[in-house]
């Protein structure tokens, strides 16, 4: 059985553009094409696509996925078993996050006490839950670099990274009632820009776009505003000012 690219995109839940990209970089080239140049995918192609998407789900960059799946030593069953273990761990983290949300709701109602430590149980910034959206907006480079650096870090280094991130959020939260163009706000937002660029390669436009996503996507807003209501909006405005100001200086 063969399928056209649009059919494959629909069944796999990804975009036609992504499949074109996979073909262009040699990650997944369809077995057959028609005389008119239309891509035709076989069942074997779909199995390979499933494997690619499993690797994507757990955060591997495309370049690394290509190296892995085309290696002579690649064992698909072994890889699937590893995927299963990692996804089970991801589910465990989500269950913990759900439990934290439920406790927070009870705490807000006055039914139970909740310590500051308990409020952040389940958060893990070593993974980016919006990776696909970031890739679609700005391409793979910054995200792939971030993933590669995270993959080479020890658990202790990842923990230190998370603490640094939280410290910047906390500092910005304390400034969120100040004008976003103030010197203090711009100094703090520069720390955030520098921090992000330690993990990847974020241009000023990407930095500004990320800030816009903080308010456009309620998941970002809720996550960030846990450090202080209105923080996402403040960061969005401060990031836009920072980007525009420094683009003029370049």
Brief summary:
The chain has 250 residues and is mainly alpha-helical. 69% of the residues lie in helices and 3% in strands. Strands 1-3-2 form a three-stranded antiparallel β-sheet.
List keywords for this structure.
mainly alpha, Multidrug-efflux Transporter Regulator, Chain: A, Domain 2, Globin-like, 3 domains, three-stranded antiparallel β-sheet, transcription, MerR_fam
How would you describe this structure to a colleague?
With 250 residues, the chain is mostly helical. The chain has three domains: 3-69, Multidrug-efflux Transporter Regulator, Chain: A, Domain 2 (Orthogonal Bundle); 75-122; 124-249, Globin-like (Orthogonal Bundle), CATH 1.10.490.50. The chain is 69% helix and 3% strand. It has helices spanning 5-12, 16-24, 43-57, 62-69, 76-108, 116-119, 131-138, 141-151, 155-175, 183-199, 204-216, 218-224, 231-249, and strands at residues 3-4, 32-33, 39-41. Strands 1-3-2 form a three-stranded antiparallel β-sheet. It starts with a strand and ends with a helix. Mean pLDDT is 81; it is low at 127-131 and 133-139.
